[in-house]
Amino acid sequence: MPNLPSEFIEQTRQLMGEAECNALCRALQADEPVSIRTNTGKNAPAPPQAHPVPWTDNGFYLNRRPAFTFDPLFHAGFYYVQEAASMFIAQAVRRYVNRPVVMLDLCAAPGGKSTLVRNCLPQGSLLVANEVMRARSQVLAENLIKWGNPEVIVTNNDPADFSRLEERFDVILTDVPCSGEGMFRKDDRAISEWSPEGVELCWKRQRRIVADIWPCLKQGGILIYSTCTFNREENEDNVAWIASTLGAEVLPVDTETEWGITGNLTGEDFPVYRFLPHHTSGEGLFVAVLRKKPDSEAGNSCFTGENTRREEADGCHAGNGGEWFADGISPSGDSEEEKPASVYSRRTIAETVYTDAAERRGRKAEGFRKGGKGKAMQKGSKVSGVSFPKETEAWIQHAGNFSFRMEDTLAIAIPADYAGFYDELKESLRILHAGITLAELKGKDWMPSHTLAMSTVLCKDAFPQTDLTLAQALSYLRREAIILDSSVPKGYVLVTYRHVPLGFVKNLGNRANNLYPQEWRIRSTKICWSRLPAPLVLLLAPTRCQILHPHKGSGASTGSG
After folding, report:
1. Containing domain of residue 329, as a range?
2. Which residues contact 218 (CB under 8 A, 6 or more apart)?
């Protein structure tokens, strides 16, 4: 690890004192802990011999970092590799949300916090997950599709595009781009790019972000503000500014003393929650929870202890009409595990590109907002004469809870309670994914979608199934041809690993066409056998997965599968 910037050390010393600063700097030189969070929507069990993350129900520390790329259950959305401190966001959601809400995760890529809150929101809630950077938005859509909850919409928009949605959201999470001090031990580039000027750039931009999205929050609604940095300017000072300038009340979150969470370091008495690596097992995280003060005390609220929320809205104005958001700054604390750097391209100050009002108008004129294509969702104008295939309704559970429609050649299912809201979003936002994509028309054939295979409401019995061995599963995930047993019927077949759905193939008898998404395939041509722990699959007992000698080829893996 490069040496920490001297100006950072001095800044930290002034904020925390000599002893705390020295302890933090030592911690930043140590190895980072490894943690995962299991998907309760897919009934994923706790991994054996793992230690629970104390502030969440389904987070676990691992003793070492395995090669997640070669675990089929990782690709099946059975668990997410996430930094432990980031899981604290669940505490805020559970503390204040007690009935179905519409929530916006504004700066959501790669999707760790989105998958987290999606599992702890009350049933019947809708999550809109947005990312402004195009490459990162595709990763966000991929991770949320794999997670499988149908009550999700993924958008790729400049946050100013949300300006028409005044008071539409009950909860907004702003995990704002920051100077990334909390990522120092995870990314050497975060150290080399840090500067006091960058900190100033960040705190000013963070205020503009919050100011622009604030009108979209309902009266009495909850704003969760978070960063992955340590300085006060981006943290306590910004929270104080939100409270005094925008009219917000800072709310407490339930904690336990033994968790080692640090409070406000500025001498003010409003509650904030700091995760410092020398006190907690995790990276740097700062969290504050704020309530938008209601105009009146009438009406009902979806928040504990609140009695008001405005249900109607009739327009919105961006807080700043000019420079708004950067395509850069720092990553969130979420895992970007095993993805090529070209895909994620970490948010950095050096990559900052402003999106001003003129550019937004240009995007709109080019059809970016309304007609732009998204790999997972939009394909342009609808194809005339194509009716919805009624047989696909039987492919999901609780079909009566969904609204079915055609989008070009795609048959999709949208949660019925939010079908109108989805149509409203389409008028102003670029949607990459919504609900469940059931099938795509290929010639005269309706091909089941990978989104369907990943969904928590998939009706598995609607398709023939075959459970793959580890070798077969890895070949499938590399999008290689696989040979199925002769007893497997021809046609579309759901392939599983340990009975967890991986996707679909079209079995032709002598071979099976691999339908795994091309852009998601494992790009590693070789398995790094030396990195495969026993068990390889985190959620299995040690004897269930036997790895044979690598010279036998990429398919040299047997066992119970």
Report:
1. 84-351
2. 167, 168, 169, 170, 292, 309, 310, 311
Give the whole-angstrom CA distance, residue 203 versus residue 209: 10
Active site residue 316: no
Q: Which of 228, 302, 316, 545 is catalytic?
A: 228
Q: What are phi and psi of 447, to 5 degrees?
A: -90, 120
Whether 490 and 446 map to the same domain: the answer is no
Identify whether residues 342 and 430 lie together within a single domain: no
* Structure token pair of residue 20: 């705390």
pLDDT in tens, 235-263: 999 999 999 999 999 999 999 999 999 99
Based on the domain organization, do 170 and 235 belong to the same domain? yes
β-strand pairing of 126-130 with 102-105: parallel
Same domain, yes or no: 307 and 179: yes
Residue 104's SS3 state is strand
Number of domains in the chain: 3
Predicted TM-score (pTM) of the model is 0.84
The pLDDT tens digits of the residues spanning 22-64 come to 999 999 988 889 999 999 999 999 888 889 999 998 999 998 8
89 contacts 97 by C-beta, under 8 angstroms: no
CA angle at 474 for the pair 64 and 480, rounded to the nearest 5°: 150
pLDDT, tens digit, 9 for 90 and up, residues 314-352: 222 223 322 323 333 344 445 444 443 333 333 333 333
Task: Write down the pLDDT at residue 557.
Answer: 29
**Residue 459 CB: number of other CB atoms within 10 A?**
15
Cα dist. 495→170, 272, 412, 452, 455 in Å?
39, 46, 21, 12, 14
Q: Which helix (H) or strand (E) holds 129?
A: strand 126-130
3-state SS assignment for residue 189? helix
